[in-house]
């Protein structure tokens, strides 16, 4: 109880599907060293939440309403500190994933992947953002 450990990775989840966010939150809640501090359903909401909460990592879908994941990733690069961005995708998109990486995302993870892959990718994105 109380405040999370200072070594805890603070994560914001960004996906327009509430069930996806809920599943991710439940999985990550039971993972030591990771704390889900916020959620957003579109890119504009993600920017507001990240400016307020200063997460370490943003786990973000690419296909979002109002402001897509690539544009949101570009905009997140203007925050101080800049969070690590980890793209969350259902399949490899030959156009959007390279665009997201060029915008500053540190990597991507598939929605159908394992919990271990997700946690490792979050830790990697955190390390990438804090080099």
Quick overview:
The protein has helices at residues 18-29, 43-53, 69-76, 96-103, 115-129, and strands at residues 9-14, 34-40, 57-61, 84-89, 107-110. It is α/β, with parallel strands linked by helices and 131 residues long.
CATH homology superfamily = Response regulator
From the alpha carbons, calculate the radius of gyration and give it in angstroms.
Answer: 13 Å
**Cα end-to-end separation:** 30 Å
What is the approximate shape? globular
| Number of E-type strands | 5
Helix content: 40-55%
Average of pLDDT? 92
Task: Detail the poorly predicted runs.
Answer: none
Strand content: 15-25%
List the total number of helices.
5
Q: Which strand order spans the largest sheet, edge to edge or round the barrel? A: 2-1-3-4-5
Count of domain modules: 1
Descriptive report:
By secondary structure, the chain is an alpha/beta fold. It has a single domain (9-129), classed as 3-Layer(aba) Sandwich (Rossmann fold), CATH 3.40.50. It contains 5 helices and 5 strands, in the order βαβαβαβαβα. Strands 2-1-3-4-5 form a 5-stranded parallel β-sheet, sandwiched between helices. α1 links the parallel β1 (9-14) and β2. α2 (43-53) packs parallel to α3 and α3 runs parallel beside α4 (96-103). It is globular and about 30 Å long. 37% of the residues are buried. The model has no long low-confidence stretch (mean pLDDT 92).
């Amino acid at each position: 109880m109380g405040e999370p450990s200072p070594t805890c990775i603070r994560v914001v989840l960004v996906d327009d599907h509430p069930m996806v966010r809920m599943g991710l939150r439940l999985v990550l809640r039971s993972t030591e060293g990771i704390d889900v501090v916020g959620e957003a359903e579109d890119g504009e909401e993600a920017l507001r939440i990240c400016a307020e909460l200063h997460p370490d990592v943003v786990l973000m879908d690419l296909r979002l309403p109002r402001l897509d994941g690539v544009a949101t990733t570009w905009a997140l690069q203007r925050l101080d500190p800049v969070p690590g961005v980890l793209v969350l995708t259902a399949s490899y998109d030959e156009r959007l994933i390279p665009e997201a990486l060029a915008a500053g995302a540190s990597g991507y993870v598939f929605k159908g992947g394992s919990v271990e892959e997700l946690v490792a990718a979050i830790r990697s994105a955190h390390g990438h953002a804090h080099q």
